Structures are given as C-alpha cells and as structure tokens.
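testing teh design pipeline on a random one, pls ignore if ur not involved
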C-alpha cells in the first residue's frame, strides 16, 4: 500500500469519529461531546502503547458495532467498519496494541466516560514509540471541536516529542545494562569507586522511571563485582585459605561462568535484533528487547547473585569445616530457590572434605596443612599415649551434618589404623575385602548423603575394630595379662600371697631404711617357687616386680613394700593403652590396701600363735598356790581379756577380707570378664576396664567419697597393730617367767636330792625382778586404752556404713553386726573394763 501523507492518521481518526456528519448542524451539547472524544483520542496517542489490557481488538470492534446498532445508526456502522479497515492497513500503525488503545477511546464514548489514562502508572511513549504514530494536525480540526484543555495537552505532548529527540535510545540502555551486569562500564552507566555503585554519566537525558529501573538492574552488576573480587584474591593473602575454601571459590567461579554465558546470550540477542531493526522499517516490534523484558529475565540471576554475595560474606575468615557449617545454614532456608542453590554450592565445596574423611577412615592419614579437618593430631605425643592423647576432635571444624557420635566413630577408625600400624606393627587389615568395598563406596560420597556416609563409616569401623581386638587378645594375650594382675596384685592367688608373707615377713619387720629391693626380689621369686605361681609362663611372671614406696620417718618394711606389674618390650606400647600409668597407679593403691589388711590379719594370727602356749602360766600359778607371785596371778585375767579382744579383731578382719575378696574383687572380675566377650572396639575395652577398677575402688573404700570411712578403717588397723605389739610384749614377758620357773624347778629338784630346801628366797627374788610390782597394773592400763580406742573406732566405722552411697557396703555392715550387737549396745569401753 502506498505511503500515506503525514496527516493521514489524524484524518482517519476524524473520519472514524465524525463520519460524514456536518459539525455545523450539531448542537452545543453534541459539539462538547465530540470535542471531549477527540481529546480522549489525542491523549490516547500520547500514552504507553505497550500498556496491557483485558480487551482484545475484535471484542472492542464488536462492542462498538453493537452500540451503534442500538442507537439506530446501522448505516454509520457500515461506514465505521470500512474506515476501520483503512486504519488497520495503515503502515504507520502496524501494531495491534496501538490500534487497540485508539479503539478503547470509543469504548469510553459508548460507556459515557472520557477520562484520559494520564494518571499515575501511565507512562508516555519512548522516543521510538512516539515516532511510530503521526500526531494530528491541529489546523485540520474545527476550533469548535478542540477545547482549551485538549489543545494544552496536545501541545505538551508535542513538546515532549521534540525533547525526546535528545534522549538515550532504549536499545543503547539495554546494551549498557548487559555490560553493567558483567561488571563492565557502559557508555551511559559507569561504576563509581568512591560511591561503590553504578551511576549515570552526567548530562545523560534519561527519564526518571527509566532511571529507577536501570538502578534496580545495575544491582546485579554490583553484586557480580563483589563476588568476582572475592574469587580473584590471591590464595596466599586470601582469608579463604585451604583446599575446602579453594573448592568453594571454584564453585563460585563456575556460577560466575554461567552468569557470563547468560550475559553473552543477552548481548548476542540484543545485537542481533538491533541489526535486524536497522535493515527494516524504523518501527518497533513486539520482538524488541526492552528494559522491562530484561528486568524480568534478570530477576532470578539477581536473586542468585545475592545469595552468592551472602555466601562470600559468611565465608570470610572461615576455612574447612567451619566454612561448610556457615554455608550449610543456608541449605535449610525456607525459600526453595535459596535452599537449592546453597546445596548446589555445597556439593563441590565438600568434595575435598569428604576426601579427607576417606583418607583418614581407610589409611589413618591426616592431610590437613591448613587445619581444616575436624580431626587433629596432638603434637609431641609419645607412642604409648597414642590412643589416649594422640588425636582429638576439633569441634569448631565439625559440620552440622556430622553428628558427634558419627565424628567419634570416624575418629576411632583412624586411631585404630594408626594404633595397628605404629604400636602393633600390623598392616594386614588393609587386605580385607569388606574394607576395600567400603572404600570404593566412599569415593562416591557427596554432600547430602548423610546415611550413605554413616553406612560407610560403620562398615569400615566394624572391620578395623574387629581386627584390632583380635590382635590384642590373640597375638598379645591381653586377657592373660589381665588375669595375672587379678591373681597377683588383687590377691586372687591366695597361696602365693601367704608364701610371700612367710618369706618376707621377718624382713619387712625391719626399719624401711634397712631394706633392699634386690633382697626382697629374691624373696618374691622364692614365694613364686613355693606356691602354684611356679606353673605360670615366664612371659607372664616376668612382669611381676617388687616396688618400694618412698619411706617416711618411722616406717617399716610393711609400710613401703608393694608389688607392681611392669609392661616390657613391645607390650609397653600395645597394652599401655589399656594399662595406662593411671590404671597401674589404681592397681598399686588396691594392692597396698589389700596388703595392709592381710598384714593385720597376719599380725593377729601371730598373736594367737604366741599367746596360746601361755596357758601354762595359769596352770603353774594354780599349782604353786601361795608360792605364785601376786603380779603373776593378776596377769591371768588380762591374758583372758587379750584373747577376747584378739578374737573380736580377728572377726572384724575376717569379715572385711571376705567382703573385699568375694563381694568386691571376685564379683567385679566376673562381671568384667563377661563384659569382655561383647566388646567390639578398643574404646569400649578401655571404658569397661575403667568401670571395673572404679567399682573396686568404690566398694573398697578407696574413692574420695569414702575417705571418712577409710580414715576410721586406717585407725582400726593402727590399733590392731598396737595390740599386736602389746600382746607380743606381754607374751614375751610371760615366756620369760615360764623359763625362769622351769629353771627354778630344775634347781630345786637338784637341791632336794642333796637334802636341802627345794625353793629359796633367791628364786622368788629372781621372779620378782622379771615381774616387778606394778607390772600387771601397767599392762592392764595399756590393754584398757587399746580396747577403748578400738571400741570407739569400731563404733564410728559401723555407724558410717549405712550412709555410704554404694549399697554393697551395707552388706558389710550386716556381716559385722549380724546380731545387732554393736548397734543395740552402742559400743562402749565398759565392755573391756578391768
């Protein structure tokens, strides 16, 4: 179709509105109505032609036709359709949306509303859009049609059209935004380093709405520069140091690369459309890339870049597990977009972290130069402390998706491998098929596979732990060594302990300063040969040695003597994990307690052995009648009381020994031995053994809570030993009297045979020198003091038993006071009154 004249469009509009009507025949009201309609059409041409609408072109035409038919203007409706066809063929209005906006004016005429869409939310045409429609020529319209208001609106629009010739074209702004989103300065928008933002070049003529939209779009460029700057920092000076941090930065660079691809696509599309438009008519089409379209397309990349910027910020000064923990928090975000993108970043970030887990889990090696892993090695740890103190968990590097229990299992697996390799000199564990399969599965682990990780750790730990337990019990005989400690340090081998006391008893009565370890070691081996201990294998019995406690003033050999089980050779590094220095110190404390208890019992037995023959004193005193000394007769009652007191002390020691040996040591050992059968790893073994020792120390009054009771018991032992000394002195004096009487009897018999008096005053004088006056009274006072002190200590001991925390100590109370003698009579010294 031939090109129309510059005023063709307004002529078509005028004909559509007025048809062939003569304006002169219209009355005043009709002229006002037509003038308002023309103004409405003029202002419609000044609006944004891309405005969306709910009415399509055919609906509007149909409604206009129906309205004209209802008004009885059928002929005019036919003329309206012909003119509409001419309007649709006009190349100057090629867009259906532009024609639709003109037609909407007539819908307003139909409904009686003529307000122009010029309020808030309606934008004027851009340069290119304004140039696509010819403005009406005011001179062609009758003045009666154009009122003053419409003329002013039209003139303002014409001024804006003339000024728009100097505005920046939209396609240029689109290209600038594409550059800005890549962190590059555009022609009209450049980055201001002082303001840390993208600003417009001074003097650039850009409408205010477009400026606001450009500022929103430039946010993506600012975020891009921020993320890119964090990714380009040198590793040596970067806060994000370490392999995990570098994996994180690599993931960020991958996202930036994807962003570059998007921007390249948009730039290519913009350039392509610009070239196509330059070769065709200079009218816009619906395929042009506009700022609003760009805003829609960049909405999601902007949100993603915001997340990347946030992750960069939270990752600062973080490394390893701490960095993963910081990012992991965003993987549980309520927004699915944020959650999925955070997980997308975490997957490559966790790759080196899972590699560290695999290296530690299957090889026991720590490749952690930047201290990123949650397992660390303690510096300067000796080999025997490798298991207890060699490695530990660094909580600050433990990610949230690895629980403390799982972390402990991972730690134990690597520790087990190190223990087998360094202490047991064993590497055969690596050939296990199950372990090889678990290692292959570990190479496929990635973030989000918590159950798979736990499964791999469980399988690997099970194999490695089983191999270590087999090595300890079968190759190194751990159970045999534990049994040897039970037999020789905890008095399980009773004949050996008795033989040792018999062999070393006389030597231990000496002062502590006169003892030698070499001499006591000889007595130890003699006791071994004299008991069933001689059938023990040499590899077990060789660890049993004499130990002397540093003596204090007045100590005897009994006070400083001790036995200990000394690990030697390769066992020092293997079994020292279970039999640590602290554990062996507990064993020595238990041995010393049992040794002292057995010493007191041994002392009371020696009292009985020395005092039993002295019943002859009573017989001799009775036979002599008046010839017996007064002191000698007075000692007869004291001797009887000594036997009574010794029997009571012996009753206490016997029941205390029974309680310690059977209810404490034996029961604890049976429980521990039964627990050994179900153990699966070394940590469980160590804990079970510590529990075994803890039970013994609690029940044997060796823990801190039992110190008041232990002090009472120590006082009772001291009184018993003092009674032993007193009884032996008294027995020695009575033995001297017996020897003197036997000698006097022999001499009297010889004198009688010669015809002289049998007994003389000299004989009686010699007896009086052995038993001087007051000896019996002094002995009675000493016995009374010992009895009273023993009674008070025993009363206190029995009174403290019910308040002890451990219930087994109450059974000791029942054994000591089964007849309620002590609790009902409230032990008093009157029971031993002379």
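output:
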């Amino acid at each position: 179709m031939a090109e129309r004249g510059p005023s063709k469009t307004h002529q078509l509009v005028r004909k559509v509105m007025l048809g062939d009507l003569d304006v002169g025949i219209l009355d005043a009201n009709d002229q006002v109505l037509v003038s308002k309609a023309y103004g409405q059409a003029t202002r419609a041409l000044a609006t944004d032609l891309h405005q969306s609408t709910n009415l399509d072109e055919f609906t509007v035409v149909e409604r206009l036709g129906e309205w004209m038919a209802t008004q009885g203007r059928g002929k005019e409706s036919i003329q309206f359709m012909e003119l509409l066809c001419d309007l649709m063929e006009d190349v100057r209005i090629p867009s259906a949306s532009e024609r639709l906006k003109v037609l909407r004016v007539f819908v307003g005429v139909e409904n009686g509303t003529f307000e122009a869409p010029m309020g808030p939310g309606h934008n004027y045409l851009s340069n290119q859009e304004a140039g696509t429609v010819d403005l009406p020529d005011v001179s062609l319209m009758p003045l009666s049609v154009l009122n003053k208001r419409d003329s002013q609106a039209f003139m303002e629009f014409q001024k804006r059209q003339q000024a728009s010739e100097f505005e920046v074209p939209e396609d240029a702004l689109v290209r600038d935004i594409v550059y800005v989103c890549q962190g590059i300065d555009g022609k009209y928008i450049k980055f201001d380093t002082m303001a840390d933002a993208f600003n417009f070049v001074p003097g650039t003529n850009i409408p205010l709405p477009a400026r606001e939209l450009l500022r929103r779009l430039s946010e993506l460029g600012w975020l891009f520069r921020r993320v890119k700057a964090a990714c380009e920092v040198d590793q040596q000076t970067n806060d994000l140091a370490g392999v995990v941090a570098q994996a994180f930065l690599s993931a960020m660079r991958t996202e930036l690369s994807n962003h570059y691809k998007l921007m390249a696509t948009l730039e290519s599309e913009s350039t392509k459309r610009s070239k196509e438009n330059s070769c065709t008519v200079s009218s816009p089409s619906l395929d042009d890339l506009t700022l609003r379209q760009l805003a829609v397309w960049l909405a999601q990349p902007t949100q993603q870049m915001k997340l990347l910027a946030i992750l960069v910020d939270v990752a600062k000064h973080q490394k390893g597990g701490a960095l993963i923990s910081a990012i992991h928090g965003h993987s549980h975000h309520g927004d699915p977009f944020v959650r999925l993108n955070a997980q997308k970043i975490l997957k490559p970030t966790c790759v080196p972290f899972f590699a560290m887990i695999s290296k530690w889990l299957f090889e026991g090696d720590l490749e952690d130069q930047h201290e990123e892993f949650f397992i660390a090695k303690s510096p300067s740890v000796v080999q025997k402390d490798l298991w207890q103190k060699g490695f530990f968990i660094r909580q600050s590097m433990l990610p949230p998706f690895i629980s403390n229990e799982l972390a402990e299992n991972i730690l134990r697996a690597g520790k087990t491998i190190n223990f087998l390799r360094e202490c047991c000199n064993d590497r055969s564990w690596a050939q296990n098929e199950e372990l090889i399969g678990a290692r292959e599965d570990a190479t496929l682990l990635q973030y989000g596979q918590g159950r798979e990780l736990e499964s791999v750790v469980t399988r690997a730990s099970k194999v490695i732990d089983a191999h270590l337990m087999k090595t300890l019990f079968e190759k190194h005989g751990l159970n045999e060594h534990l049994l040897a400690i039970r037999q020789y340090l905890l008095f399980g081998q009773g004949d050996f302990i008795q033989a040792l006391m018999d062999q070393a008893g006389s030597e231990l009565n000496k002062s502590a300063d006169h003892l030698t370890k070499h001499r006591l070691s000889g007595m130890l081996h003699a006791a071994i040969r004299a008991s069933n201990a001689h059938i023990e294998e040499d590899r077990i019995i060789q660890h049993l040695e004499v130990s002397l406690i540093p003596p204090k003033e007045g100590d005897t050999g009994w006070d400083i003597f001790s036995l200990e089980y000394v690990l030697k050779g390769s066992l020092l590094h293997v079994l020292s994990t279970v039999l640590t220095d602290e554990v062996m110190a507990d064993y020595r404390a238990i041995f010393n307690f049992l040794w002292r208890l057995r010493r007191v019992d041994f002392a009371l037995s020696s009292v009985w052995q020395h005092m039993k023959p002295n019943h002859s004193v009573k017989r001799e005193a009775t036979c002599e009648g008046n010839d017996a000394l007064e002191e000698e007769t007075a000692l007869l009652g004291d001797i009887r009381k000594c036997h009574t007191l010794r029997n009571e002390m012996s009753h206490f020691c016997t029941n205390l020994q029974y309680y310690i040996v059977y209810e404490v040591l034996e029961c604890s050992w049976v429980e521990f031995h039964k627990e050994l059968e179900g153990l699966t790893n070394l940590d469980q073994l160590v804990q079970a053994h510590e529990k075994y020792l803890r039970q013994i120390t609690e029940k044997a009054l060796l823990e801190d809570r039992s110190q008041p009771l232990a002090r009472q018991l120590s006082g009772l032992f001291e009184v018993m030993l003092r009674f032993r000394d007193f009884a032996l002195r008294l027995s020695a004096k009575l033995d001297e009297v017996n020897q003197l009487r036997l000698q006097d009897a022999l001499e009297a018999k010889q004198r009688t045979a010669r015809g002289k008096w049998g007994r003389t005053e000299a004989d009686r004088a010699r007896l009086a020198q052995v038993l001087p006056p007051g000896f019996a009274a002094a002995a009675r006072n000493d016995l009374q003091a010992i009895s009273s002190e023993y009674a008070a200590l025993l009363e206190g001991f029995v009174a403290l038993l019910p308040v002890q925390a451990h219930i087994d100590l109450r059974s000791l109370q029942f054994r000591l006071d089964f007849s309620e003698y002590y609790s009902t009579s409230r032990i008093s010294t009157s029971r031993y009154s002379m």
